[in-house]
Amino acid sequence: MKSSRGDVRVKAVSICTLSLWIAVWLVGQFFPWLLENVGAAGVFWLFAGFSALNLLFCLRILVETKREDAGRNRRHFCGGH
Length: 81
Fold this sequence. Notes:
3 helices, elongated, mainly alpha
């Protein structure tokens, strides 16, 4: 069975949504504990540090696809399926 572009998109959106909700749950579970034990400034800097790491990841690792051909992107990310 040949995978269509819609199938890949549905799977990708599902994985992204699941990872987002897991991250939201983790923050909700540990934020009160961190606030009590580390303080407001410590929690701020902790989240700022993770945001900086995320920015570096996006700038260094992720591939820009805005100006690329859709067929090339599909072959690159879907392995030619």
